[in-house]
Write a structure and sequence with these properties.
Length: 102
């Protein structure tokens, strides 16, 4: 028995207020034309640290979704895992194939 029934139960970060707020902060910080700085200010440094932490969370979520898709789709097309190694491409292929295979 699989723990999750849908990808939405796993992939929560994309819809999270944390990510939305962080992307807004990045947009604000990069929209202002400023001269190139050698050292980052405190708030800029904190934004970089938060971005790095979110990258780790995104990578973790990608791995979880990839495993979910492999577990669900392996029954229909077990060879797909060995044909498409990249998790993002795997998701695109599964989406393209959909439930057409029986």
């Amino acid at each position: 028995m699989l723990k999750y029934a849908t990808v939405r139960e796993i992939a929560k970060l994309m819809r999270s207020p944390e990510l939305s707020g962080h992307l807004e902060k990045i947009e604000e910080a990069t929209s202002e034309e400023q001269p190139v700085k050698v050292a980052l200010a405190g708030s800029e440094y904190q934004l970089v640290v938060e971005s790095n932490n979110l990258v780790v969370e995104i990578e973790t979520e990608i791995r979880k979704v990839h495993k979910f898709l492999k577990d669900h789709y392996a029954m229909k097309f077990p060879e797909l895992e060995s044909l498409v190694l990249n998790p993002i491409e795997y998701a695109r292929v599964v989406k393209a194939l959909g439930n057409e295979m029986v």
